[in-house]
Specification:
Layout (H helix, E strand, L loop, with lengths): L1 H37 L6 H19 L1 H19 L11 H78 L4 H27 L7 E4 H11 L9 E5 L6 E4 L1 H18 L6 E8 L2 E7 L33 H11 L3 E6 L5 E10 L8
Parallel strand pairs: 2-4
Antiparallel strand pairs: 1-3, 3-7, 4-5, 5-7, 6-7
Length: 367
């Protein structure tokens, strides 16, 4: 109700403003017409047309197109009625006067419309410039944020190393609390590492070594990296095609992305549920799909699953992490000309697809 009342008040104020604008414009037209009538014996039709045209342009620039167009029509009538013989009638004695009147009417209407369009384009340009400046400021703020993150992350490495070393000594000395210190320091170190990696990706300074690599090598290395992880036995990995699958990608960064996807799938999958990892080729892409039977991502959260620090409502409460793994994995894929996509799994769960540029096998010498 309050909103409707506010809109009604605004509409009433707008109507009163328009009424005042039209009344003022008509008053000015009357004053100009009185002056022209007083001097009509000494004025040429061109002088009258220019005076009225100036009034139309001023009114259009001051009060808008509607007022300008209205004045154009009313001034045409005044021109004919008061300043074209026979006076005080709409009849025209000289046929050429009709030409002057029509030309004036068309000119004034077109001038009012063009002035309105020019004002609108100027306003649009000003808005675009303001948006461009705002975007530039946001980019600069983003750049400074990334620089700060990189600096802080780098500076935290040394004290974390010291804390970990001291905790290790305390644990060896028999202090049971040292294990907790080591665990929390490891978590903090992971966050620092992820922040540093993200800042490098955002800053475009990540070093990539794009080389020909085999899909089975990447898949085997990921499983080897996770060999000591809990529930690694729940992972079913296979190649979709029998022929060699080659791609052109950075092996180290692609391995990190794939390991992150498998780790996430194991974290979110209920006990006893298998995680499927399949490598294959579709078109010009190598695709590594990681499928789980976890809670999945609610539809309303799917668009944000790769946002930094995002936590879905479907997240298992006891699952820990920095909230940057998927963000970094997607950036690593995109930096190599690939992609990382999410889709819900039929029957429940999630499917993440890591796409990397594929390579064709060189033709054999015999062929």
């Amino acid at each position: 109700m309050a909103t409707d009342s506010g809109r009604s008040t605004e509409a009433g104020a707008e109507r009163r403003r328009l009424t005042a604008d039209f009344a003022l414009a008509i008053g000015l037209l009357a004053l100009v017409t009185v002056g022209l009538v007083a001097l009509r014996a000494r004025l040429d039709k061109a002088h009258v047309a220019l005076a009225y045209l100036l009034l139309v342009l001023v009114a259009s620039a001051w009060r808008g197109r509607a007022v300008g167009l209205t004045l154009a029509v009313l001034s045409f009538v005044c021109f004919n009625f008061f300043l074209i013989p026979p006076y005080h009638t709409l009849a025209v004695a000289d046929p050429l006067d009709w030409l002057a009147l029509v030309v004036y009417l068309i000119t004034s209407l077109v001038a009012a419309q063009l002035l309105y369009r020019a004002k609108r384009e100027a306003a649009a340009r000003a808005q675009l410039l303001a948006e461009a400046e705002r975007a530039r400021a946001l980019r600069e703020a983003d750049r400074q944020k990334d620089a700060l993150l990189a600096s802080v992350s780098h500076d935290l490495r040394t004290p974390l190393t010291t804390i970990t070393a001291l905790a290790n000594e305390l644990r060896l000395a028999g202090d049971d609390r040292a294990a907790t210190i080591e665990l929390e320091a490891a978590r903090l170190n992971l966050l620092v590492t992820d922040l540093l990696e993200l800042s490098r990706l955002n800053g475009g300074v990540l070093q990539l070594q794009l080389e020909a690599n085999a899909a089975d090598d990447l898949l085997g290395s990921a499983l080897e990296r996770l060999a000591g992880a809990p529930r690694i036995g729940d992972v079913d990995a296979r190649l979709e095609q029998a022929e060699p699958l080659l791609g052109r990608f950075d092996f180290t960064h692609s391995l990190r992305a794939l390991v992150n996807l498998i780790e996430n799938a194991l974290k979110y999958s209920p006990p006893g549920q298998r995680v499927e990892v399949v490598a294959g080729r579709w078109g010009n892409r190598l695709v590594f799909t990681v499928s789980d039977r976890g809670p999945g991502i609610p539809p309303e959260d799917a668009a944000h699953v790769f946002d930094p620090f995002f936590r879905s409502a479907g997240r298992t409460p006891d699952v820990t992490g920095t909230g940057l793994g998927l963000t970094i994995a997607r950036r690593l894929a995109e930096a190599q000309g690939g992609a990382l996509r999410y889709q819900p799994r039929a029957g429940g769960g999630s499917v993440f697809s890591l796409e990397l540029p594929a390579l064709d096998l060189p033709p054999s010498p015999e062929s």
